[in-house]
Please model this.
Amino acid sequence: MPHTRPYIYPIALILIGAVLLADCEFETLAHLKPQASDETQARAVGDLLKRLIGNRASEFIVSVNRSLALENGQQDTCEIRSSRNANIAVKGSTGVAAATGIYNYLKYFCNCHISWSGNQLNIPSPLPPVTGTLRIASPHRFRYYQNVCTQSYSMVWWDWARWEQEIDWMALNGINLPLAFAGQEALWQEVYLSLGLNQTEVDMFFTGPAFLAWNRMGNLFRWGGPLPQSWHVKQLYLQYKILHRMRSLGMIPVLPAFSGNVPEAITRIFPKANVTKLDPWSHFNCSYSCATVLDPRDPLFQRIGGLFLSQLVKQFGTDHIYNTDTFNEMTPASPDPSYLSTVSGAVFSSMTSVDPQAVWLMQGWMFVHDPVFWKPAQIQALLGGVPLGRMIVLDLFAESTPAFSLTHSFYGQPFIWCMLHNFGGNNGLFGTVESINQGPFEAQRYPNSTLVGMGLAPEGIEQNAVVYELMNEMAWRREPVNLQKWVSLYAGRRYGSGHENLAAAWKLLFRSIYNCTVPHYKNHNHSPLVHRPSLHMATELWYERKDLLEAWRLLYSAAPSLMAVETFRHDLVDITREALQLLVSDFYLEIRAAFQNHRLPELLTVGGVLVYDLLPELERLLSSEKHFLLGTWLARARSLGLDAKEAQQYELNARNQVTLWGPSGNILDYASKEWGGLVGDYYAQRWSLFVSTLVECLDCGRPFKQEAFNQAVFQVEQGFVYNQRRYPDKPLGNTYEIAKRIFLKYFPQAMNRVSPAA
Ligand SMILES: *[C@@H]1O[C@H](CO)[C@@H](O)[C@H](O)[C@H]1NC(C)=O
Ligand SMILES: *[C@@H]1O[C@H](CO)[C@@H](O)[C@H](O)[C@H]1NC(C)=O
Ligand SMILES: *[C@@H]1O[C@H](CO)[C@@H](O)[C@H](O)[C@H]1NC(C)=O
Ligand SMILES: *[C@@H]1O[C@H](CO)[C@@H](O)[C@H](O)[C@H]1NC(C)=O
Ligand SMILES: *[C@@H]1O[C@H](CO)[C@@H](O)[C@H](O)[C@H]1NC(C)=O
Ligand SMILES: *[C@@H]1O[C@H](CO)[C@@H](O)[C@H](O)[C@H]1NC(C)=O
Model:
């Protein structure tokens, strides 16, 4: 293998000479640190390297010495230098710091890449030398990862192999504060049975696996349930392994705590319990929502919270940090500040009664979700109910709607600046690279900032890997990057060197589709493709479509020599998918115009191309690439079932989540996915019915009635959920041939159409 020229653009070089701005210090958080010995952490990183690069791992000499952090105000630090025999010596203050240093070296010296959509690990031999010492140091105490919803939208069906891969990814990307939420229902079940509830009552409480995130937050119960006993056993087994691995790498896992959300039947045992039945959540009615919430001032709250936490600490050990969200998307009983501070004080004391060193990690989502209720007085009261520095607030959607600047840095409570980026785990290229590149530093410079970390809080993952890589680097940098340069290097790493045209493609993407600057934009996939058709669908874009189409052309042109590279195959499919999604909007607008202007032949032509060619081509394209298969999602779900009945239940959970979400389409298409299987049997069927309904209306001179169409199309949607068809979990067909046919047919059309963007 030729010796690749080292790419000298490591994070560390950026740091040299830069003003050192570090997070403010909170003595109250000093005990949140790795528990594993330095030796254990070093060994865990060595094992990670073997999983990642096999024999080449022996060329890295990894050590961990916590004293290294002393020179960096106790924050994570890593030093990398060349040593004898062309080996590379890596010394980290923690396992995570060492792993981050290694990934930085792999990226910027070896031109390698690791992502959800594939790795590019063509490592030069011998390893490129490091001149002097490469020093990588984070200005932040914490690098947080996960949204409580990620557990359901992405991780719900994972086995240990997939978890292991993700924990490796976390370590390599610097994450030291991850949620560890698996297995908690097993403990809740024990707590409630021990209080005297019977199994039926417990079964009436839990949702099925795909909806547990919202059960835990008190939004939802019973839907998709009950949880089989085998589920608890398997999740407990996973949780032990997850915690052990996270801790051995030097991470500080965050465990769940009690929010007040209880089974309705609690009042059979405790008739005097001060519970409130909440209003329905989202578009559900009281059959599956309207949670029963225990008043935190009721002594029973301390009892249940305490029982759960002691059980949790006994089973899992603790790192003294717990997450709970009492008011997520729920309106509190009263806006009275004294009530709100009593409530947060009570929640906190239910933690400290078991673990005197407890720190409460809370999502600050409600402050941006419901600003009408959460005025400064309410926020200050809630945060003030907990001693200063004993709570960490996640500024969850900071890249779009930061809350720190509206609350004087959360009135003195420490906070973590989080990028949310993704809602519902949708596909769709998207990013706000400018605010990711600036926001973290603005948060640090904010007067009297209480910033203690950076974080990722996506509702779903396994999409837009580039945005997460950028954000993860931000947690180790002290100033913004040059985005155009950064993304050129990214392209080189992602596909291997020698594909300069692709840097041009990525530069185009970074200035357009990844550069959303619309204030407070919420990244759902708004494309008509993945929504129930109507005559009132929005098709606005936030970017110049020419840029996307030119990037498509560049990727397509490079394809013949790059199809063997997994990351490239993924991206060719992804960008072709995005371009077809654009065309669906064009076709939709033409269909609508043809209908409104009574032009039947045009309606038949455009509708026909959409339903009989474009969507089937998209279905074939997606089905040819392993990262875009409905069959994988369903097979993973089924594989967790102990028998056919459980497999069936999990499969229905899995199908429902990505389509109807609730029994009657309650949160329809929120978690949409452009996957092979789903495009053909769900989205295309819907569009087919829409087009044929319009044709019929025009033919008979009838108006289009949305209500009647909704009822008819609901049958189609439900038909998919219950069709019992098996979808392949292995790719089918030749991706290149399909992508080529699509490009030749549709690229000229896409270029010719006038942009629907304003
Ligand atoms: C860790 O680093 C400190 C400070 O540099 C040093 O005194 C100590 O010997 C090191 N420990 C090991 C085990 O190398
Ligand atoms: C649980 O208790 C309820 C209410 O008393 C009762 O209707 C139900 O039959 C009980 N179930 C079991 C399994 O004991
Ligand atoms: C029960 O809680 C409500 C508020 O949720 C409060 O107004 C009421 O005083 C409480 N009742 C008792 C008996 O504590
Ligand atoms: C909730 O809606 C479902 C239909 O989706 C209906 O069957 C059920 O009776 C409703 N429940 C309540 C309590 O209104
Ligand atoms: C920052 O804190 C100091 C000391 O508490 C205070 O005097 C100053 O007014 C604060 N600055 C801002 C902008 O809040
Ligand atoms: C993003 O768009 C803004 C204008 O809205 C522009 O100033 C900026 O340079 C763009 N960023 C990139 C990376 O192209």
About this structure: The longest helix spans residues 566-596. The longest strand covers residues 77-82. Residues 274, 276, 295, 333 surround 2-acetamido-2-deoxy-beta-D-glucopyranose (ligand 3) (CB under 6 Å).
